[in-house]
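Margin note: ligand = alpha-D-galactopyranose.
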Amino acid sequence: MNPLQTKVSKVFTDNFNAKPIIVRSPGRVNLIGEHTDYNGGFVLPAATDKSAFLAILPSNKSTGKWISIDLDRTVEVDFKKNIPFSDKKDSWANYILGVIEQFKNRNLSVQPFDCVIAGDVPIGSGMSSSAALESAVGFAINEINGLGLDKKTLARLVQQAENEFIGVKCGIMDMFASIHGKENHAFRLDCETLDYQYFPLNLGDYKIVLFDTGVKHNLVESEYNLRRQQCEEGLAFFRKYFDKSVKNLSQVPLAWLQASKSQLNPIVYNRCQYVIEENQRILSACEDLQTGNLKDFGIKMTATHEGLRNLYEVSCKEADFLVDSCWHESSVLGSRMMGGGFGGCTINLIKADAIDKLFDRLSISYEQKTGIKLKMYSVVTANGTEVLGMRYEV
Ligand code: GLA
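Resulting structure:
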């Protein structure tokens, strides 16, 4: 049993004198397909064994007590009010409140509950610790209230919680990946239709490894929202001058873009070029995965980084340094920044027996360059959000 499962369970029983149900909800990695989710394109994520754990039971009162073990904080919540916490120390509780609000918006009644949370998804690493927590909460509320929402609906609900209550205009990838992950598999999600297909991860002698830059630049949110606007501007252009029925930027043919070079703002042009090319790249990367051609898969990861750095401009010098260093290594098939950008992790495909030595060397040069201690996570894939052990009888 995962020690965090034992821990949340024990703290719950100590505080509330009852045996809770436990929900585990994973963080995610994304193999390829970055900044395509909010452009209606494809992504290729996998859920990891790093997860949020939630112990929960209805409180039978109009209030609930929520405990974060990691932050050593406890909040009392009045379920009639749903008022966000303004104290930064308790902002973690807003991720729970946001999800409750979405159930209420759908006229689904949520019984007040007590809960205890803990997790080992590294915060700020770009592995979506917040989506893991929100997905755990959505899944648990659905369970203890017997609401019967399906997984796609839950993922959409959780995304809306993040968009509306937390105010981060993220796409659907993170929560969808957390909820739908499957051990030893990645899955290709069409973010327009929400259709998805699992791909076995047969990596042979290679492993997926993350190097954590240890930085999260302030720009991340404002630049993320700006990229969304620039993509919307591009899409509006193609709708106006080419085909008004085109649904999203990912569907725009490259030829339309190339024919528009003189009319489009050069920055918008670059953003569109990246998105259209990235979407094509994912499709051929999935073929590489199916045929076991990891070398070509790695080349595409690297091309993604070039696009994110030069056309989409969401990388940062720390991630570039790690990626550039890895590209020179014969044991590395592919390396790129992962997630929204401006920090977080790079994702790498590395020969298993070379990982430790590479990490040792990279740690030294990275610390010399940035003054930051490098962290590494070897990715182990896992199943998506689930109730562990005892289920709740409604
Ligand atoms: C963040 C967002 C995701 C996605 C990625 C970029 O992680 O939360 O929705 O847009 O950036 O691919």
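The chain has eleven helices and 13 strands.
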